[in-house]
Design a protein that fits this description.
It is built from five helices and no strands. The chain is an all-alpha fold.
Length: 150
């Protein structure tokens, strides 16, 4: 029990020393997501539907889209995979930044982002499936602690 209290105390002290950097990190990531990435993906989906003459996409017209517009469905699946990849990059970047802050090592934002993207490209398919399942399982509950626009 004492080890737990020492662990918590050390981590709270570390957070207290760098709280402003952590806040800036989370705010800047969410700013990029809400101002660039999410609007771009939304525009892409809307454009895809408009170009193919689909007024809306819900479970009521899913079968007709599947049968009449299979390329749209493939494109939407690719967009979902892109979103999953972007979620992975977001989390990997966030964890890399937290580690960098804790260790106080210099690294550029671009370098950390490239490393996170490289990690995504080297993932094995089973690892990616586990990660997607994890995000789908934990994301609704994780909204209490870590809010994301995804």
């Amino acid at each position: 029990m004492r080890r737990l209290f020492r662990f918590l105390k050390a981590n709270f002290q570390a957070f207290g020393r760098h709280w402003s950097v952590y806040v800036l990190l989370v705010v800047s990531i969410n700013l990029v997501l809400t101002s660039l990435i999410v609007p771009g993906l939304t525009w892409g989906v809307n454009r895809l539907l408009v170009v193919n003459g689909i007024g809306y996409l819900t479970y009521t017209n899913f079968v007709s889209v599947l049968t009449k517009h299979p390329l749209v469905l493939i494109s939407l699946v690719l967009l979902v995979l892109l979103i999953c990849g972007l979620v992975y990059i977001q989390m990997a970047f966030l964890f890399r930044q937290i580690k960098r802050i804790q260790e106080q090592t210099p690294a550029s934002q671009w370098q950390l982002l490239k490393q996170s993207g490289h990690d995504l490209l080297t993932l094995k398919p089973l690892t990616m499936l586990i990660m997607i399942g994890y995000f789908l399982l934990i994301l609704p509950f994780g909204q209490i602690i870590f809010k994301s626009v995804w």
